[in-house]
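Exercise 3.2. Students should predict the tertiary structure of the chain below and write it as structure tokens, then compare their answer with the key that follows.

Predict this chain's 3D structure.
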Amino acid sequence: MKINCPIFRVSFTNNNKMGAKRPGVPGRSRETPRLPPISSGENEMLIGVPKEIKNHEYRVGLTPSSVRELTAHGHAVKIETMAGAGIGCSDEDYVAAGAEIVGTAAEIFATAEMVIKVKEPQKVEYEQLREGQLLFTYLHLAPDPDQTAGLIKSGVTAIAYETVTDRNGGLPLLAPMSEVAGRMAPQVGAAALQKANGGRGMLLGGVPGVAPAKVVVIGGGVVGTNAARIAAGMGADVTILDKNVKRLTYIDDVFGPRIKTQYATIDDTEALVFDADMVVGAVLIPGAAAPKLIRREQLARMKPGSVIVDVAIDQGGCFETSKATTHADPTYIVDDVVHYCVANMPGAVARTSTFALNNATLPFALALANKGWKQACKDDPHLAAGLNVHNGKITYQAVADALGYDNFPLEKALS
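Answer key:
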């Protein structure tokens, strides 16, 4: 069954030549309607989107509608062929939006001024990056010394989605994927609780006469709140732990008695975790490695067959026994506790995730393309907070601290 990708198709009469064959798409000769450029007062930027290559990663950096916005502002966009297949968007959808389809990722990395991705570049990708090029994607550098060294060596300027801020102190480009991962956590945890998967053999919501599973969520931020919401909706007995009383008050006001709240002392954290059937790790320190909240020796006191879902794994994980897994092999068992530690959870629901991510990233991508990265960051300190690497130097303090680099001051990078 063909899944149509939403995009407005509008024909305009102009003097541009239509119908040229697109590289990488043999035999295509069709009109590709494009909006007339919106003048930005700046030069056109060439933007490239390679197909994601991380294990079972189906998201894509730009949707066709985002491509249309960028081309409407006078920019050129190259998309690697089949990059949007995982979200149900064809090469034809991208061509209709104004993109050029190319046959290989190598052409993207060789020609693009700005590369837009979803996940951190893999080794074969960061080895193709170069000085003067802009990379806009999730990076999660603190637990990844190899990627960090590769980006430094390349000389690329790298802006990380996960450290861009907003005026309220939030992380607007991390939030959509945190919502997705949080809502997925009870789903994947419920599957892991099944006996055939190594779990306790419990139904999350129980049945009449049989108590539901106890779910403990460590962290009451975006991930934690969404995880708790879904777990409660599935009928589980849910408690959120956090050290921010104001946040706990907010959660209590919103959810009432459906979700319990508890201040996260060491004693209360241990008591709840040891009695839990599922524990969701949802703790984040922006840009830094996640704190290890549950140690190996504590794991032995958890219930046999209980489940850990460590959503913080892309920042190193908040359990000492956590190690990154993939959608192909998502779980492993330590001391009779099932660990689910997939580092790209939202990739499993690629269509929802990609459209949600583009809703957040598009305004920043437009600013970077219209103004150039340096002027865009000067104009917007929240975007500037995303600058992690520039010209062989680390420019984000938490990453420098985590990996032992000197931090190059942001104001010098922007001078």
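Discussion points: Residues 350-371 form the longest helix (22 residues). The longest strand covers residues 237-242.
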